[in-house]
Write a structure and sequence with these properties.
By secondary structure, this protein is of the alpha+beta class. It is built from 19 helices and 28 strands. The strands form seven sheets. It has an eight-stranded mixed β-sheet with strand order 14-24-23-16-17-18-19-15. It is globular and about 70 Å long.
Length: 620
């Protein structure tokens, strides 16, 4: 899959519950067990593990669903509904609930009765609101279909953009927008995403045709292709689709939509999604929601763009907006490594009005949710739209700093700060760093995408990383860029190095969530998969040679470098003190730890199950 991170299954993050969400998920209860009787309070409903949704209804408009919560709407749907309710600029659309997905799975992959009629009714409302008709050859309404589980699963499920285009509608879109290049670019993206996600056509076959066309035209970037080039690319992509499926690309918009919804439901059970759920203890029976959203376009020219931004640095916790964007781009471009994005601050020069609106919107969202937010946005001809907000994935160091500083800022209480820290994530605090006394020479440098240092043998594919990692070898997964299908290799690697991609690429996002050191966008790196070798700054290394990477500085080093344990920081000590002061918490010292050369502190909350072991090496 080539996921669109702006529209992928990255739906909710760690941290305290959102204002309109229950404290815990009630998992996959039958619909009849979750419906709230008329007049019952939201708190009573939540205490009984029920939803406020009427019986046998599966679809909700964004402007009517803000109080239904992420269990039913998924994280993305809940975020879109709540942003709509508080006046954040969000494209129009609706959510098909997780209950519909569960019924689909229970019903042998058949849509539940009544769902298609509900979707048709919502599409009619969307047509009325936008003044466009889905499937209209003259001025088509286009939509995306986006996954959205209740628990964050970055890039693990599927998204399809630009549904509603066909051979006639692309001509109409070109006429109505006056932008022929944009129209053909949108159509080629639809064929590629639909072909891969719905029909299982090899994504690499599309990429090879794109690469061949760029080589023929003597250009390096997609944005350098003209409207005529993209028209030819559409024909090439249609041949790839036909070769892969034995049929022509579907021209009926309703068929596209129906099959796309099924494909997103099916993506809940893809191997990569199952691997991710097992690794993160996510129940298999939650299901995913599906969000059908009016398309907004970041690929209309230099006054348009797309990006990802955090209200604080997810690697360090430093306050201030942090992220990346690309002009004249659509969703996937930011994370796939096709182009290296620009730092978000550079958007101020190229799109000043949208940038100021983005800054204000992100401030509002963090104050509203009282949590660091990870947002995804599109600017269409100077106008800002938010496509998602969620509590952002972060490193353990970042989580500690954010929790402590939000207490200082009066956003949360000390008790909330303690409760927000994931005990399992605190193991990251013990990840090694390069010995400050070590003598080494960095041969290349990329983006410091996820902190920590790692040494290991070069492996060039995820399968080999999994095999050797499970055999006890330390390996560094080296890729042009990672994609969600690499998750099994990432789980076994000590670190990841990519030639392409930015700070918000798939590799960077997943690595930070896993506490895996990552250096991304290393321009000096090239990979020859046929020869199983890499080149770093002109030096050739075979697979199996040893590399060291420093995700804190972005440095890449040939050979092994001595690594040392990190120092536990002041924020951790502060949080431990708050835990000690809390009535339900107790802090115990383990005297035996000193015999092993460690300071050892353990926090335990018998009622909450919060249990942390933190060790710190004594230097004396």
């Amino acid at each position: 899959m080539v996921p669109d991170r702006l529209n992928s299954g990255r739906d909710v993050g760690c941290g305290a519950p959102r204002p309109s969400e229950p404290d815990t998920l009630t998992m996959a209860q039958p619909a009849s067990a979750r419906h709230t009787p008329s007049g019952q309070s939201r708190m009573e409903s939540l205490e009984m593990g029920k939803s406020a949704a009427p019986m046998n209804r599966y679809v909700y408009d964004f402007d009517e669903a803000a109080d239904l919560g992420r269990e039913l709407l998924g994280g993305k749907g809940a975020g879109l509904a709540e942003m709509t309710a508080i006046g954040i600029p969000v494209p129009a659309g609706f959510t098909i609930t997780t209950e519909a997905c569960r019924e689909y799975v229970r019903g042998d992959r058949e849509l539940p009765p009544g769902l298609e009629a509900e979707i048709a009714a919502q599409m009619a409302g969307l047509e009325e609101r936008t003044g466009k008709r889905f499937g209209d050859p003259a001025d088509p309404l286009l939509v995306s279909v986006r996954s959205g589980a209740a628990v964050s699963m970055p890039g693990m499920m599927d998204t399809i953009l630009n549904l509603g285009l066909n051979d006639e509608a692309v001509e109409g879109l070109a006429r109505t927008t006056g932008n022929e290049r944009f129209a053909w670019d949108a159509y080629r993206r639809l064929i590629q995403m639909y072909g891969h996600v719905v029909e299982g056509v090899d994504a690499e076959a599309f990429e090879q045709e794109l690469g061949a066309l760029k080589e023929d035209r003597g250009v390096r970037q997609d944005v350098e292709l003209t409207a005529v080039d993209l028209r030819e690319l559409v024909e090439r992509f249609k041949r790839v689709y036909r070769d892969g499926t034995g049929a022509d690309f579907p021209q009926d918009a309703q068929e596209q939509l129906g099959r796309a919804v099924r494909a997103v439901f099916d993506s809940w059970d893809t191997p990569r999604a199952q691997v991710y759920r097992r690794a993160n203890a996510i129940p298999d029976d939650l299901g995913t929601a599906v969000n059908v959203v009016q398309m907004v376009f970041g690929n209309k020219g230099d006054d348009s763009g797309t990006g990802v931004a955090f209200t604080r640095d997810p690697a360090t916790g430093e306050p201030g907006m942090w992220g990346e964007f690309l002009t004249n781009a659509q969703g996937e471009d930011v994370v796939a490594g096709i182009r290296t994005p620009q730092p978000i601050v550079e958007m101020k020069a190229s799109l000043p009005n949208a940038y100021e609106q983005l800054v204000d919107t992100m401030r509002r969202l963090e104050e509203h949710y009282r949590e660091m937010q990870d947002i995804e946005f599109t600017v269409e001809e100077g106008r800002l739209y938010l496509l998602q907000t969620r509590s952002g994935k972060r490193t353990a160091h970042s989580a500690l700093r954010i929790a402590v500083e939000m207490v200082d800022e009066g956003l949360i209480s000390k008790e909330e700060a303690v409760a927000r820290i994931d005990p399992g994530q605190l193991d990251q605090l013990l990840h090694p760093m390069i010995d400050p006394k070590a003598d080494y020479e960095a041969v290349a440098k990329g983006l410091n995408a996820s902190p920590g240092a790692a040494t290991g043998k070069i492996v060039l594919d995820a399968d080999l990383a999994e095999e050797r990692g499970r055999a006890g070898e330390d390996v560094i997964l080296v890729r042009w860029e990672t994609n969600p299908d690499d998750i099994h290799g990432l789980l076994e690697a000590r670190g990841v190095l990519t030639a392409h991609g930015g700070m918000t690429s798939h590799a960077a996002v997943v690595a930070r969530g896993m506490g895996l050191p990552c250096v991304a966008g290393c321009d000096a790196l090239s990979i020859d998969l046929d020869a199983r070798t890499i080149r770093l700054a002109g030096r050739e290394l075979p697979e199996g040679d040893v590399l060291t990477i420093d995700g804190g500085t972005g440095e890449v080093i040939m050979g092994k470098v001595n690594l040392v344990p990190p120092q536990i920081n002041e924020d951790f000590e502060t949080l431990l003190g708050w835990a000690d002061d809390s009535r339900r918490l107790r802090v115990r010292g383990d005297s035996g730890a000193k015999e092993k050369g460690y300071n050892h502190r353990e926090i335990s909350t018998p009622h909450d199950g919060f249990h942390v072991n933190a060790s710190r090496g004594d230097s004396g």
